[in-house]
Amino acid sequence: MRARLYKAEAYEAKIRIASQEQSLSTLKQELEELRFFAAVEQGAAMENNSTISSNHNDPPPKEDEDMMDVKQKAAEKDAELIECLATELEETEKELKRTKRQLKEERSKNKSLNEGVETHSKLMIGKMQQELDAERAKNEALSEEMSLIATRRESNNEWQTKEAALNRTIENQQAE
Questions:
Q1: At what angle do helices 62-175 and 2-41 cross, to 10 degrees?
Q2: Is there a domain that residue 90 lies in?
Q3: Residue 25 is assigned to a structural domain of this protein
Q4: DSSP string, 5-34
């Protein structure tokens, strides 16, 4: 879009250059007329009207011509520079569009990958939760068994204590 704008500006610059060249030509003619009238006022009058018309066809002074050439070359260089900039801008815009498209593709890929990772993570979390629940169930069963064993030990200890007491009582009775 900017490239078109710059190309339009370059075209307008070329039109302005042509217009300026035409204006310079007109100004040169007016300058020649003013020089003629200045010469007439100073007493260097022309012989007849044919001299006036031939004077209009005389080439302008070298300095004016050089100045015009310099201005024209500068204007042409400006127009070329504008065209180059417009072309470069157009290429940059194309590169920007290409980069944007690549970014969209990368984002799409990343989104797909993220969704895949998220799905996989959810599956893994579910599986791990099941394993954790199974381990908890095992731990609860083991805890129950351990408490049964502890209860049995206490009960066994009580029997052993009672047995030891009975054995002492028996020994005491036998000793008497």
A1: 150
A2: yes
A3: yes
A4: HHHHHHHHHHHHHHHHHHHHHHHHHHHHHH
Burial label for 86, CB within 10 Å (0-12, 13-18, 19+), is buried
Q: Which two tokens stand for residue 43?
A: 């007493």
Q: How many helices (H) and strands (E) does the chain have?
A: 3, 0
- Residue located via tokens 């083991």: 142
- What is the count of structural domains for the chain? 1
* Nearest by Cα to 68 from 116, 101, 102, 24: 24
For residue 131 the two structure tokens come to 């394993």
User: Phi and psi (nearest 5°) for 59?
Assistant: -65, 150
**In this structure, what DSSP letter does residue 43 have?**
T
Residue 153 domain flag: no
d(CA 66, CA 99): 48
Q: Read off the pTM.
A: 0.38
Q: 40 and 73 in contact (C-beta within 8 Å)? A: no
- Model confidence over 138-164: pLDDT tens digits? 999 999 999 999 888 888 888 888 889
| Structure token digits, residue 156 | 């066994």
Domain hosting 114: range is: 2-123
- Residue 138 and residue 130: Cα distance in Å, rounded? 12
Residue 150 within any structural domain of the chain: no
